[in-house]
Amino acid sequence: MQNKTLRKLGAATVTAALALTGFIAAAPAQAATKTIGIAYSLGGRDVPGFNQLAYIGVKPLLDKNKSIKLIESQDNPTATDDQRAERLRLMAGRGANPIVVVGFTYAAALGKVAKEFPKIQWGIVDDSSVKAANVQSIVFKEEEGSYLVGVAAALSSKTKSVGFIGGVNTPLILKFEAGYIAGVHSVDKTIAVKSTYISNFPDFSGFNDPAKGYEAAKGMYENGADVVYAAAGGTGTGMHKAASELGKWSIGVDADEATYPAHAAYKKTILTSMLKRVDLGTRAFVADALAGKKTAGVKTWGSKQGGVGYTTTGGYITKAVAAKIDAAQKKIASGAVVVPTDPTKA
């Protein structure tokens, strides 16, 4: 299964603490060697999730060719667009090409810097707003993956009430909510779906506030929900804690959250996780760039491309439930089912 592959690769990504400069240097960039750059979003590569998946994506390329070097940097909660732009300039100046930029928070910065370094091939995860001849948008059909775990939630709920927690109210996270609602209602339209957001754009604190995630999930569980799905980064840890205390189900996002070291105490409460294969997206982009292929444009990863999925760690998804989820995914991949991206139309 996909989750087993991610778990095996993810175990190899534990690294030393980041330098105060915000960079990890695998080795000094040299003119004669190829260098890959990765600019992470909040948390860096050692925190499981889409940041770590970006690293997991390029690691096989590094293992295959030891002459390829890697330089990395990460965002911080108080960074401005100008500071992000300067961070990208520094990576470019050190010889990195291609460079993967993780997260839509880099969009404004990349829009400026890509023009300054037209010979560098840039890839940005989760944003398609940067239009340039040297930028690839690596985007995902999160609504499709969320639909799948919505099916799992509906088939596992006994109270006919489930919940959704979004980290930050943005168009991206609304896609998660829309897909989840649609998946739930594809099974049973009478199931109630309660939704809440921890913060509103441009306040990104909702992606890293476990305490608020705990309170939001606890409120949903105490008001009848028995399954809650969070697309909220580190905030989701609070949801898992609440589910564990109250004997309810929780659903993770992006990677197999049941395998996260920080979630060891909550493994028995995590029903499944929605897989968002950032590793596949970044690997394909970097491999093409290193091979000298043109990479600019929008590359979308959905069910048809194997870009989204779900996990079965713990065995809580029975064979019967898995069969129904897989059937739904086949319909989505074939185009027989089109998943909405707007919660009001789910």
Q: How would you describe this protein?
A:
The chain has 346 residues and is α/β, with parallel strands linked by helices. It has 2 domains: 2-141 and 278-301, 3-Layer(aba) Sandwich (Rossmann fold), CATH 3.40.50.2300; 142-276 and 307-345, 3-Layer(aba) Sandwich (Rossmann fold), CATH 3.40.50.2300. The protein is 38% helix and 21% strand. It contains 10 helices and 13 strands. The protein has helices spanning 2-10, 50-64, 81-93, 107-116, 142-156, 171-187, 210-222, 236-246, 278-290, 319-334, and strands at residues 23-25, 35-40, 69-74, 99-102, 122-125, 135-140, 161-169, 192-200, 227-231, 249-254, 270-276, 297-301, 308-310. The strands form 2 sheets. Strands 1-3-2-4-5-6-12 form a 7-stranded mixed sheet, with helices on both faces. Strands 8-7-9-10-11-13 form a 6-stranded mixed sheet, with helices on both faces. Helix 8 links the parallel strand 9 and strand 10. Helix 2 (50-64) runs parallel beside helix 9 (278-290). The protein is globular and about 55 Å long. The relative contact order is 0.15. It is a lipid-anchor. Residues 48-340 form the ABC transporter substrate-binding protein PnrA-like domain. It holds the Pfam family Bmp.
